[in-house]
Each structure stands twice: as C-alpha cells, then as structure tokens.
Amino acid sequence: MGRRRFFYASAAALLVCVGLSYVHQSGLLADHLARLRREATQAVPVLREIAATAGTERRRYSLVPILCFHNIDGKGPYSVSRAEFRGYLERIRDNGITVIPLRELQAAAEENRLLDRPSIVITIDDDYKNIVRVGAPLLREFRYPATFFFYTIDIMNDPRWGTSWDDLRRLYDEGFDVQNHSYTHTIFHIRLPGESRAEYDLRVHREIYTSREILQQNLPDAELYAFAYPMGYFSADLRSRLENAGYELLLTTDSNPVDLTKPFTGTFDRYTIQKRFVKNPEAMFQLQLQYALSPHESGDVAAD
Ligand SMILES: [Zn+2]
C-alpha cells in the first residue's frame, strides 16, 4: 500500500508539474503570438510602401483622348446605335480605362500633371433627344461622367417637340457637365461673301455670347467654361473672340489626344466617333484606347 500511495503521490506531482509547465508554456506562446501580431501590423505600411514604389502604381499616363459622340439612334454617319454605344462604354471599362470629367483633364493639362491611370473623356454634341433618353441613362449605369455640348436655338420648353430645357436641367442635376456649342450650329469662323464687318460681328456675338446667356438663364448654377466649335470649323480670329468672351477651353474635332506633357493652349482636340468618313472606324477607336493605355516613358514635361 505504501508503495502504491507513493506511486499516486508521484503521479499527482508529475501531473501538477506538467500542468504548471503547460500554463507557463501557453503564457509564453500567447506572448509570442501577440508580439508576432504586433510586428505584422507594423510591417503592413512598410509593405504597402514597397508595393507602391515597385509596382504599376509608379506608371504615369500623358495621353488622354476625348471622344465625341452625336446621335444614338444608329442612323447616319455620326450616329451609333444603343448597342454600339454600350459596346464603346464596355470596352473602355474592360480595358481598365477611367473616364474622367473634362474639367479634371483641363486642370491636369494646365499644371502639366500626368495621370496615374489610363484615362479618357466622353463628350456628346448637338441636341438629339436620344442623347438624353438613351445616352445619359447608359452613362449613369457605368457611372461615367460626360460633357454635353448643346446649341441652343432648338431647345424647347415642351419636351414633346425635341430636347427641352427640362432635359438639360435634369442632365445638370444628375451631375453631367453641360456646355456651349453655339446658337445656330452654322459656320461662323469667317465672314460670309458680301457680309459686312458689323453684320459678322453681330452674328458671332449671337453665336458665342447670346447662346451662353440663354444657357445660363436656364441653368443658373452651371459654370459655362467651354465651347465646342460647330462642325469643328475655327479660325485664329474666332479663337481670340472666344478667349475674349471668357471661355477657358475650346474644343475642335481634330482627332489628336490631349498630351499632358505639352504646354496648355486652351484648345483640346477630340476624336469624333463616326462610321462613313474614316477608313476603319474600329481601328480608329482602338487607337484611342491605345493612346490612353500607353504609359508615359520619358521624363519630358513642358512646364518643368
Ligand atoms: Zn455639333
């Protein structure tokens, strides 16, 4: 019996020792884990910094195409169908290109500030009803900003007859940019045969001042800073008249992407989406995507 008691006593002592050791060990383990956790937490910002300096975030982009759409009924050389319009938006998204507001591109160009991701700007011209009914909802679906250039002579109060002022107010309230595209959408970069200087001055005044006053009356909160030349016609004289009128940005249809390394001139070119007057519309659109996707390679920036 004595030996048995000794055995039980020894076994109990051993269990106590093992138990104490376990408690001690698990305490150490807990401390160890806590330290590892602390160190890992401290390492996260360092790792982020390494990733930022080593990876694609270092890339910068200097070429930004501005697309110019018109009608979205699929009829005519400058028109695209609803499905085609959606297709363009999808391809911009699927290529990882960000659609930025025109005003944001202007700010970057003024500072010769390159962008940290591939970017594109969307504009839509004229007064087609379907750009409000079809274009704007699709742009909203993709959460894309856009600038709409309207000429004002045909904007109606009654939406049954075409694009109405309510349509423009709705676009503006939804966060879209609404800018000026003249009063009559005619050619006014030069004098007409037989037109006197005074007559021409009056005509140009109506196209660039009166149109803006009409837009402003109907969109009192809108900041009207840009003017798109109707059909892309411009001259040095018209350009200086527009600058004197206070426009900060003039838009042509000359197809070149905006180059953020070049000095800001106050004029941006745009690529018009069209079918009939370019040899290969698909290749031309692909070219715009390629401009946006090409990282800037040399360090030359005009303002440096
Ligand atoms: Zn136009």
Count the beta strands. 11
Largest sheet: 6 strands, parallel
List low-pLDDT spans.
none
**What is the name of the CATH class of the largest domain?**
Alpha Beta
What is the overall silhouette? elongated
CATH fold assignment of the largest domain:
TIM Barrel
Assigned CATH superfamily of the largest domain: Glycoside hydrolase/deacetylase
Task: Kindly report the oligomeric state of this protein.
Answer: single chain
Mean pLDDT: 88
What is the count of distinct domains? 2
What is the CATH architecture assignment of the largest domain? Alpha-Beta Barrel
Distance between the termini: 98 Å
How many H/I helices?
8
Secondary structure class reads: alpha/beta
- Tell me which ligands are bound: zinc ion
Q: Which range best describes the helical content: under 10%, 10-25%, 25-40%, 40-55%, 55-70% or over 70%?
A: 40-55%
**Rg value:** 32 Å
Strand content: 5-15%
Describe this structure in words.
- The chain is an alpha/beta fold.
- It folds into two domains: 1-58; 60-293, Glycoside hydrolase/deacetylase (TIM Barrel, Alpha-Beta Barrel).
- It has helices at 2-54, 82-94, 102-110, 129-141, 165-173, 197-218, 236-244, 281-293, and strands spanning 63-64, 66-69, 98-99, 119-125, 147-150, 177-180, 226-228, 249-251, 258-259, 267-268, 271-272.
- Strands 2, 3, 4, 5, 6 and 11 form a six-stranded parallel beta sheet that branches. Strands 7-8-10 form a three-stranded parallel beta sheet, covered by helices on one side. Strands 1-9 form a two-stranded antiparallel ribbon.
- β5, α5 and β6 (177-180) form a beta-alpha-beta unit.
- The chain starts with a helix and ends in an 11-residue tail after the last helix.
- The mean pLDDT is 88.
- The structure holds zinc ion (ZN).
- The site of zinc ion has 5 residues, from loops.
- The site of zinc ion (ZN) has 5 residues, from loops.
